[in-house]
Design goal:
This protein has helices at residues 2-24, 30-35, 49-55, 57-96, 102-156, 179-189, 195-198; strands spanning 44-48, 160-164. By secondary structure, the protein is mainly α. The longest helix is centred in the middle third of the chain and has 55 residues, at 102-156.
């Protein structure tokens, strides 16, 4: 579960980066772009986002929180689902053994249908809460990374720092890989998860 949460977080983080790039990037006139020579002094670096997800302490802490929350949700839904299934099985057995009048049977059946509706509503609510928590984590991760990169780049003076996930960059010279520097800096700046978050 922890691995899948990290994967989801990385995918979500990449989509957030892509969205923010798409929304903030101004339209470039193709003619103007072709006439402008590339700055020979332009400095470029890249960061392996997969490594951030597995080595940044913030990611590890939040992945543990999300895993625990996801497990609690699953346990709650399983318990309620099993209880409902047992009640349905008992109801079917009681019907076969003529334990109910028609009116009683209709009443019990209506109650079971309400329990099923309530369980579906609970599942939707808990899933929505979990998604909100995941979104909050992804936003916090993005903000943390962007804030740190802004501070880091005051001295480094990179023109462009790009994210690399899997094979989204066809070729990258390891000379331009600043991942370890960034992870070290992020972990050094990370103050830990507030105590109330860990509960």
């Amino acid at each position: 579960m922890k691995k899948s949460i990290c994967s989801v977080a990385v995918i979500a983080l990449m989509s957030l980066f892509a969205t923010s790039c798409n929304n903030s990037a101004p339209k470039v006139d193709e003619k103007a772009a072709s006439m402008s020579p590339v700055d020979a002094n332009m400095k470029i670096a890249y960061v392996e986002i997969d490594s951030i997800a597995t080595q940044y302490k913030f990611c590890k802490d939040y992945a543990a929180i999300l895993e625990k929350k996801g497990q609690n949700i699953q346990n709650t839904l399983n318990a309620k689902g099993n209880a409902l299934q047992a009640a349905v099985t008992k109801f079917q057995q009681d019907i076969q053994n003529n334990q109910y009048t028609q009116q009683q049977a209709e009443s019990v059946q209506a109650s079971l249908q309400k329990q099923q509706t309530d369980l579906q509503a609970l599942q939707q609510r808990l899933s929505s809460e979990f998604q909100t928590e995941t979104d909050k984590y992804n936003n916090a991760l993005r903000d943390s990374l962007q804030h740190y990169l802004a501070v880091y780049n005051k001295d480094k003076k990179y023109s462009l720092i790009i994210s690399k996930v899997g094979d989204n960059i066809l070729y990258a010279d390891k000379t331009y890989d600043i991942t370890n520097e960034i992870i070290t800096g992020l972990n050094k700046a990370y103050k830990g998860m507030p105590a109330e978050k860990k509960k």
